[in-house]
Design brief:
By secondary structure, this protein is an all-beta fold. Helices cover 0% and strands 58% of the residues. Strands 2, 4, 5, 6, 9, 10 and 11 form a seven-stranded mixed β-sheet that branches. A four-stranded antiparallel β-sheet has the order 1-3-8-7, with no helix packed on it. 30% of the residues are buried.
């Protein structure tokens, strides 16, 4: 499975961005896809996930009400709509897919920078 992210950039506090992640390869083996982020000097953390079966979602507490994860199953795409961005949201955002055998796949990451 290969993952390619897009949509990062620089935005002012209170602004919005939408990230996209396109999956290719053995996408039939994917159970869960999601977004993680890593800020400088910090560990990578979960932002949101969406399950292939049923489409249930889970969000980290710090993004509830501001971010929304969605998918286009036919195109193996997921999105992360980020609203009301704050400087503390600045990080590299990574797309993740978890497949059969609990194998993790990662994209190359996309930088999101929020200025105050």
């Amino acid at each position: 499975v290969q993952l390619v992210e897009s949509g990062g950039g620089l935005v002012q506090a209170g602004g919005s961005l939408r990230l996209s992640c396109a999956a290719s390869g053995a996408t039939y083996s994917i159970d869960v896809m999601g977004w993680y982020r890593q800020a400088p000097g910090k560990q990578r953390e979960l932002v949101a996930i969406i399950r292939s079966g049923g489409g249930s979602t889970h969000y980290a507490d710090f993004v509830k009400g501001r971010f929304a994860i969605s998918r286009d199953g036919i195109k193996s795409l997921i999105y992360l709509q980020m609203n009301n961005l704050q400087p503390e949201d600045t990080a590299v955002y990574y797309c993740n897919a978890n497949g059969w055998g609990q194998i993790d796949y990662w994209g190359q990451g996309t930088q999101v920078t929020v200025s105050s």
